[in-house]
Write a structure and sequence with these properties.
Layout (H helix, E strand, L loop, with lengths): L1 E11 L4 E2 L4 H7 L4 H9 L9 E2 L2 H4 L2 E15 L4 E14 L9 E12 L2
Antiparallel strand pairs: 1-4, 2-3, 4-5, 5-6
Length: 117
């Protein structure tokens, strides 16, 4: 008979990212470039006329924990025939979900036969 328990906790995230306004230099290098016209159509919506990613720190937050518990047992039926039983339980807990709720549990069982030549 054997068993095991594993617990994992992880946490990560990015800070805010700010890009400088490089459009004047790009416009000077190639004033007729198609992306310059696209830039002009939405740059007025951005503060200081350059993109910022103020929400990146919120959307990049990761905090999760998992626990995995497993037990297995072997039973020798004959000298050459062995039966294996196992059960595993896993729980996933996502503390900082923003796309979907990643919480959940699963329990699965296994039975196997082994014949030794």
């Amino acid at each position: 008979m054997s068993g095991g328990v594993t617990y994992t906790y992880s946490k990560a995230g990015f800070g805010n990212v700010h890009f400088p306004n490089i459009m004047p230099q790009l416009l000077a290098m190639n004033p007729n470039s198609p992306q310059n016209f696209a830039w002009g159509s939405f740059k007025a919506d951005w503060p200081n006329h350059y993109p910022t990613f103020e929400e990146m720190d919120n959307f990049s937050d990761l905090e999760m924990s998992t626990i995995d518990v497993g037990v297995s047992a072997d039973y020798q039926i004959t000298e050459k025939l062995l039966m294996n039983f196992s059960v595993d339980y896993r729980k996933f807990d996502d503390q900082e979900y923003y796309i979907y709720d990643g919480d959940g549990t699963i329990t699965y069982f296994g039975v196997g036969l082994q014949y030794i030549l």
